[in-house]
Amino acid sequence: MHKNIQVALSLRFVLDFLPRTSHPRFFRLRDMSKTTDLKASAVSKKGIDPNLYPTARRDETVEDNFHGSKIKDVYRWLEDPDSTETQQFVKSQNDISRPFLENCNEWKKINSKLTKLWNYAKYGCPMRYGSYYYYFMNTGLQNQSVMYQQTSLNGDSKEFLDPNKLSDDGTIALAQKSFSDDGSYMAYGLSESGSDWIKILIRNTETGKDLNEILNKVKFSEISWTKDNKGFFYCRYSEQDGKTDGSETKQNENQKLYYHRLGESQDKDTLVVEFPDEPSWRIQSVVSDCGLYLILAIVKDCRDNIVYYADLEPGKEINSKLNIKKIVEKFEADYDYVTNEGSKVYFRTNKLAPNYQVIIIDFEKPEESNWKTLIAEHKTDVLDWVRCVDEDKLLVCYIRDVKTVLQANCLRTGKLLRVFDLDIGTIVGTSGEKKYSEIFYNFSSFLSPGCIYQYDFKTPEIMPKVFREIKLNLEGFCRENYIVEQIFYKSKDGTKIPMFIIRMKRDTIEPRPCLLYGYGGFNISMLPCFGLTGLMFIDTFDGVLAYPNLRGGGEYGEKWHNDGRLFNKQNVFDDFQASAEYLIDNNYTSKDRLVIQGGSNGGLLVGTCINQRPDLFGAAVAQVGVMDMLRFHKFTIGHAWCSDYGNPSEKDHFENLYKFSPLHNVHTPGSNEKEYPSTLILTADHDDRVSPLHSFKFTAALQEAVRNSKFQNNPLLLRVYTKAGHGAGKPTSKKIEEATDILTFMSKSLNVDKINLNSEQ
Ligand SMILES: *[C@@H]1O[C@H](CO)[C@@H](O)[C@H](O)[C@H]1NC(C)=O
Ligand SMILES: *[C@@H]1O[C@H](CO)[C@@H](O)[C@H](O)[C@H]1NC(C)=O
Ligand SMILES: *[C@@H]1O[C@H](CO)[C@@H](O)[C@H](O)[C@H]1NC(C)=O
Ligand SMILES: *[C@@H]1O[C@H](CO)[C@@H](O)[C@H](O)[C@H]1NC(C)=O
Questions:
Q1: Rounded mean pLDDT, 185-203
Q2: CA distance to 92, 591, 594, 602, per residue, from 621 (Å)
């Protein structure tokens, strides 16, 4: 279990937007001579008369009693995605936002420049399964990356799976894959329109043909093969009724673990594990490297798991419920299976080690007093992940002050064997298995789109070598023209918060357009990574990017996360606001040039911050945000976020959430100071992670609040995308469209004095 199945509000896709990596020759050298100098007024804000916003019906009769507080929910009707009234609301919002964004010269120019920049070949790490290597490749603008198969690393490759052929518009994505131990089959999950639901299909790797069966109602599931290659374990929500295409809002409960046998239809699958008394539990399963255990890491929200296991007897049919044995019974820490040697099972855990350590639990003597520590917790660095390679080695990755450190340790003694040299940046991909001595890792950083290194433990004297380096087909990008700095600023309570600032090199610092991006939650670490749109912002507006590592993330282990969740959530907002103040006070930007952006849990961040400090920002972009903090737990997998937000049905949590819930803290500007920044709210019709209803209700409340205010000229817009979800699997054409909308919005709503949109060279 390398990384848990995501149900948190993680935004791998937002990371697309983020600068995610760094390498030379990426970006075209900024050519100032071609920069058009524009009068601020020419691209200045285009105000919107607040009376033009569509009127959303207020239903004054809907009222909830929260522990004695009566709270109206006048836009409850917007929670029904299928009603004509909701659809009309969406249409009337798009009728305002689309022309605002699209009917201008900038949109076309930004779109064509961005499309050019995007058009370079992207490769994933080679992965070895059975007699083949596989890798993903995207020629540049393909909507989905294509999977290739080859018999040797230097040999010819043939197309193995091309998701682009599965739909005309690229909205079917390969969401997951898992090979049988001998590599003869690949089970894979397809997701449609960005939904979390997947269908599992099985492909024969020799013939490239799929078996007949298709497994449905699968969500938040691992696919773990038994070592006899005859079938695999997976989870489904078999009781979920109604539509399951991702546009529904029904809660996901009662996940069950099944065993599927190759060649049989899904209705013959064996139910192996269920917990009928625990509807919120989700079952993450992994077959141990030796094949003799099925290890279950059970979670109920977004942190802490218990550990159960079942013995798998070689040669014995799996045709009934498994007999479960309990190892860890309390939800109080994370346990991540690494590998095992007989009954000695290795876990990475934060049990009594907030920065994580590697321990060994002997399944024959599982009492905690018998647990052994193999790699002890580091005082300051977070042990981010561990992977067993080359029989007896552990590839170990640490986060040190928000930068990646990669090393190898001995599986038997825990001793450090070697450290891999890395620049400031992040390992964004790895491949390597216990049975192979060869590993690959993809390193990336703010100014480097990615570089895959190859290393073989059989030849330790040979340094890791560059296997493939991403080359942009754009001339002139020169890393030396940019600066990446990491500073530490003080938040409201004095805590030091790290922040990366990326900009063009110059002698003096003067206020420039600045994109401030934040997340702050769910223990998700915002590591340095490459993003085209971010560099496009720098290049086009001579801008500055800023990435603060807000509390709530995992950058400094469990403590950092704890300091930004539950009753400490306000710290996250304070950290973000303090980062804006730092950037203004230190001349990197000014209020009218500063835009904040965040998605998902980061959309909540943006929604809250424009309510709390409208005076601090020029513009704001909130993507797929959680905006109704009193009802988030009622839809799809929302209940799993109680570990970060708290449960509104408990009084003290309700009181805490009510203080910052974006929907419940909207104000009517009574002065220029209180005017909302220009705000763009983005969501999509198949987002079943954070239902679009959050953005609908928040927009309705904002527009209603400003309707009669003479102090509100900045636009407050909602754009709803169709056939799209929370972000994962989004086709390239939709990513470019969204990025174009965002950059156009920024260029129209910020005080931009230079704009370089010349995409010819
Ligand atoms: C990607 O999908 C869009 C439709 O969503 C289509 O217009 C475009 O041609 C596709 N791109 C490629 C490279 O196939
Ligand atoms: C929390 O974040 C740390 C640092 O990124 C990571 O190593 C750990 O696995 C995360 N915990 C969970 C439960 O995801
Ligand atoms: C490395 O990862 C980045 C970011 O995920 C990706 O764009 C790139 O294609 C990968 N491969 C290489 C060779 O950099
Ligand atoms: C801030 O920027 C202005 C230009 O707008 C410049 O005159 C001033 O010296 C800068 N201040 C600092 C402290 O760098």
A1: 97
A2: 20, 15, 11, 10
